[in-house]
Design brief:
Length: 362
């Protein structure tokens, strides 16, 4: 690959488009003739104001975000949103439904318990989170202040294949590991949040997309920096925003728009996932724990027949020019995260390696 880059299957932070990195590099010492880099300029300057406006405009265009939604750039990662969501939204009946489909949704539910009553509307714990629930399995409370889901389960490698119907109860979704991977109907959600480091930008930026009617009902204990209303009204500039990350976000939006938008991302992502799952399904050496219909196209988790072979696989994959194929410590095994910037060739290269490894170790 160009610049001697390797195929990086990291679950996050993850690959960024080479074009974006080149553009950032070329502007590092003197951003568009203003005599300094984006890292050095005042966030209140005209130049920077233009960058943050363009980042939001780009994101709105890419995701087709309706006008009655605010876009907020925050910090603290998706993990801080586990607290921000209840502080901002659990204030009518002081209870919320959480659907637990993996690690992060479990963490979100646990954090929310600090702020009100959490009802676990479904959990996949007893089946090792091997699938997403069907609509009729959800025990939803019509009086809940909201329903929380994690749309793509980064660690387990599962993904919702439908948007659950929550009636009049607002639907809140953690989209950290699947945002921008394919078109999604934003209007079906009351609130979407996502840490940027998987598909949007470097770590340090969190994107929040919130329907306007949910604002203004925040719990009085809420730290100012967690208050969606204050941050939305300040245009994400209540204090110094993560300037550099927002700048890279703008460049990534430009790249997505230039390369065919989310429809094209979806085509490429489906193709990559198909190549990889096809290899897994046709093999009696590799297994994947996630049921068909619930499989993530971003994080593909799999195993060889033994932990020893998993470890050997990781070691040899590094020697072959790939990295970060070891799964999360909580699941063990292997995982290939194939976000937007992993090229089809990267997946083809991985599959060729897998076939060779299978033949040598069967
Ligand atoms: C990575 C991830 C998180 C945690 O994100 P941080 O930005 O590290 O807090 C939460 N939810 C999902 C779905 C993730 O993939």
């Amino acid at each position: 690959m160009e610049y001697n880059r390797i195929f990086n299957f990291s679950a996050g932070p993850s690959m960024l488009p080479v074009e974006v990195l080149e553009s950032a590099r070329d502007n590092t010492l003197n951003y568009e003739g203003c005599g300094m880099s984006v890292m050095e300029m005042s966030h209140r300057s005209k130049v920077y104001d233009n960058i943050i406006q363009e980042a939001e405009k780009g994101l709105r265009k890419v995701m087709d975000i309706p006008d009655n939604y605010k876009v907020i750039f925050m910090q603290g990662g998706a993990t801080l949103q586990f607290a921000c969501v209840p502080m901002n939204l659990m204030n009518k009946n002081h209870k919320a439904d959480y659907i637990v489909t993996g690690s992060f949704s479990g963490k979100a539910a646990k954090e929310a318990e600090k702020y009100g009553k959490v009802n676990i509307a479904w959990t996949g714990k007893s089946i090792n989170f091997s699938r997403i629930p069907r609509q009729e399995e959800l025990k939803l409370d019509p009086e809940a202040d909201y329903v929380h889901i994690c749309f793509n389960n980064t660690i387990y490698g599962s993904c919702w294949d439908y948007i659950p119907d929550t009636g009049n109860v607002p639907l809140v979704a953690d989209l950290s590991s699947c945002i921008l991977s394919r078109p999604i109907d934003v209007s079906k959600f009351a609130l979407i949040y996502a840490g940027a480091q998987k598909n949007v930008a470097p770590a340090g930026l969190t994107i929040v997309i919130v329907r306007e009617d949910l604002l203004g009902n925040v719990s009085p204990i809420t730290p100012t920096m967690c208050d969606y209303t204050i941050n939305a009204e300040a245009g994400s500039m209540h204090n110094t925003p993560p300037c550099w990350c927002i700048y890279i976000c703008k460049l990534v939006m430009d790249w997505i728009l230039k390369t065919g938008g989310l429809k094209e991302r979806e085509q490429v992502n489906l193709r990559k996932a198909e190549i990889l799952y096809d290899c897994l399904d046709k093999s009696d050496f590799y297994t994947t724990a996630i049921e068909k219909g619930s499989r993530s196209i971003m994080n593909v988790r799999f195993n060889t027949p033994s932990e020893e072979l998993d470890a050997k696989f990781v070691k040899e994959s590094v020697a072959a020019g790939m990295t970060n194929l070891k799964a999360h410590r909580s699941t063990g095994g292997l995982r290939a995260s194939i976000y937007n910037c992993m090229p089809v060739e990267g997946v083809e290269y991985l599959v060729a390696f897998m076939k060779k490894f299978e033949a040598e170790n069967k």
